[in-house]
Write a structure and sequence with these properties.
Structural class: alpha+beta
Number of helices: 4
Order of helices and strands: HEEHEHEEH
Bound molecules: tetrahydrodeoxyuridine
Oligomer: single chain
Strand order of the largest sheet: 2-1-3-4-5
Radius of gyration: 14 Å
Strand content: 15-25%
Length: 131
């Protein structure tokens, strides 16, 4: 897995975060099966519930282009240890992952710390509409 490339894309996306309320910019990048990389940043709103997370924006951008097979995700913040995707994003990311598959996730921060995990570790026993 070429984490450096995916993390560079997430880092670039983070620069576009719109986080005037939390002051917590997040960048995410998602690698799809076809090799393409799609990015997202968090975009907040004066109605707090309307803000969207970086991971969700990255995935929905890829999905909106017709892509359905995520292969890896990188997310970057400036927390130590690196922040993990929120519960909502874990569920969103699970949408296109087959029950027997998993999704590698790199959590990183601006200080160069990296932690690798998987969706299966972050969201065990995830909900499936069908058995
Ligand atoms: N945020 C993300 O973009 N991804 C996450 O996984 C957790 C939180 C954003 C939402 C909000 O704009 C800010 O970080 C603070 O919660």
């Amino acid at each position: 897995m070429d984490w450096d490339r995916l993390l560079a894309a997430a880092t670039a996306a983070r620069a576009n975060a719109y986080a005037p309320y939390s002051h917590f910019p997040v960048g995410a990048a998602i690698l799809m099966e076809d090799g393409s990389i799609w990015t997202g940043a968090n975009v907040e709103n004066c109605i707090p519930a309307l803000g969207t997370c970086a991971e969700r924006n990255a995935l929905t951008t890829a999905a909106s282009a017709g892509l359905r097979k995520p292969r890896a995700v990188a997310v970057i913040t400036d927390t130590s240890p690196p922040s993990s995707p929120c519960g909502l994003c874990r569920q969103i990311l699970s949408e296109f992952i087959d029950p027997d598959d998993d999704l590698p996730i790199l959590m990183a921060n601006t200080r160069g710390e990296r932690e690798e995990t998987t969706l299966g570790q972050l969201l065990p026993h995830r909900f499936k509409l069908r058995a």
